[in-house]
Amino acid sequence: MSSTRDRRQRIFSHVYRCLLICIILLVLIFICGTIYGVFFNAAPPRSTQIDGLQNNDGQGQTFTGIGQLRVTTADPQPGMVILFVLFTYYPDDKAFSEELALRVREFRDIIVSYIGSFSIIDLQSQGEELIKTELLRQFNAILRLGQIDTLYFSDFLIIG
Questions:
Q1: Can you tell me the distance from the alpha carbon of 129 to that of 136, in angstroms, rounded to the nearest whole number?
Q2: Nearest CA among 115, 132, 124, 126 for reference residue 160
Q3: Are residues 66 and 36 in the same domain?
Q4: How many CB atoms lie under 10 A from the CB of residue 84?
Q5: Domain span at residue 39?
Q6: Are residues 78 and 24 in the same domain?
Q7: Shortest CA distance to 76 belongs to which of 119, 14, 26?
Q8: pLDDT tens-digit series, residues 33-55
Q9: CB 55 within 8 A of CB 48
């Protein structure tokens, strides 16, 4: 009986040693792989999309970070203006890119304040081009590191 017990202990001892060796090998592989990845592997390419900045294959970028806005008008029975503002700029200017991303909230506030101050009839009489010109002027007034050339509306609906 004692020989059976000794035999089992030797088997368990061998199994335990094998498992321990396997664990040590896995830890060494993990450590070596991490060291190789940190020191010898090139950094992965960075994404070219930053909070509303979409790459257009080096031709410039389209800033879409403002998104679609729904603004109520100043009418007694308020209407709704739905618009999506975007503009292009050159991606080489990293500081300007960061400024644009940081000023999204201000851009939205400008749009809501400007559009919301008019009635539906006033907005229709002004027309889309005059509204774009005034929004562009107000956007450029707050920008310090660059200027926007042209604003575009991909959506501009006045619902009364």
A1: 10
A2: 124
A3: no
A4: 15
A5: 1-44
A6: no
A7: 119
A8: 888 777 776 554 444 444 444 44
A9: yes
